[in-house]
Amino acid sequence: MARTNFDQLLQAGCHFGHLKRKWNPAMAPYIFMERNGIHIIDLHKTVEMVEVAANALKQIAKSGKKVLFVGTKKQAKDIIAEKATSVGMPYVTERWPGGMLTNFPTIRKAVKKMASIDKMMSDGTYSNLSKREILQISRQRAKLEKNLGSIADLTRLPSALFVVDVMKEHIAVKEALRLGIPVFAIVDTNSDPKDIDFMIPANDDAKDSIATILGACCDAINEGLEERKVEKADEKAAKEQAEVADEPKKRARKTRKEADAEEAPAAEEAPKAEEAPKAEEAPKAEEAPAEEAPKAKKPAAKKPAAKKATKKAAEEEAAE
């Protein structure tokens, strides 16, 4: 079943384009006709495009990634803030901070600065400052909250960008294009759709038109988030069941280990008992040759005495 239908879009005024003289020729395939100098958008194609974009957003949300909503024009601000908050997604409704995607670490530093000011207020450091310092810090905090308060939870680059009025938000589109981030956008007849990955041809100036299309897309994101919760719950339940099924095996392994641990000391004592006699016999075998060796060397020690005796006998013969 389609998320939107022809009558719903017609009632919201999604078919009204811009003046004929302001049109972009790249939007010709999505223009149904021209009446009273105004282009009329083909709503049958809009229904198809909304369905394609909604399914893609659903898959992004299901995978646990973030979609950044961007719309700084007066008509879109409140609607974007309301719809994005309802699905827990970050959004930008004030001035687009240049380099927010391409220079994301610097933007994160500003967000951390805001968090540090909040910490000062809570831990009592704030009350020790002078009135002038308190006033300066309060103004700085208010400015940061206005421009970056809605993206305080965005800790990494978003996985997709949803833009209302690509002409007004051309810097955001260029940054996303440079980083390869897919862009979803409501594109009017005066805009160029070539840089948009998932375009929705519709009126981007009417509140009802923006609310209808954003409502369909946010419902798809909500479905993706719900499916993710269900999948996580199923995985948790399956894991618990697996643990319960493995408990008997774990117990069996534990008992085996305990039995092996008891057998190990007995097995170690037996070899020690066998090795003890060998250890005693070895020194005796070594001692025997040590005692015999000196006996063999004793005759050699008597040689000097024999020489002395022969010399004495020779001297006595000479004296006679």
Quick overview of this protein structure:
The protein contains seven helices and eight strands; from the N terminus they run αβββαβαβααβαββα. By secondary structure, the chain is of the alpha/beta class. Residues 276-306 have low confidence and may be disordered.
Which terms would index this structure?
320 residues; alpha/beta; five-stranded parallel β-sheet; three-stranded antiparallel β-sheet; elongated
Characterization of the model:
The chain is an alpha/beta fold and about 325 residues long. The chain has 7 helices and 8 strands, in the order αβββαβαβααβαββα. The strands form 2 sheets. Strands 5-4-6-7-8 form a 5-stranded parallel beta sheet, sandwiched between helices. It has a 3-stranded antiparallel beta sheet with strand order 1-3-2, with no helix packed on it. About 10% of the residues have low confidence.
Low-confidence stretches: 276-306
Shape: elongated
Order of helices and strands: HEEEHEHEHHEHEEH
Largest sheet: 5 strands, parallel
Summing up helix and strand content along with how strands pair, one would put the structural category as alpha/beta
How far apart the termini lie comes to 152 Å
**Total number of beta strands:** 8
Q: Number of DSSP helices?
A: 7
Quote the beta fraction: 5-15%
Task: Give the helix level as a range of percent.
Answer: 55-70%
Mean pLDDT: 82
Main β-sheet, spatial strand arrangement: 5-4-6-7-8
From the alpha-carbon coordinates, what is the Rg to the nearest angstrom? 45 Å
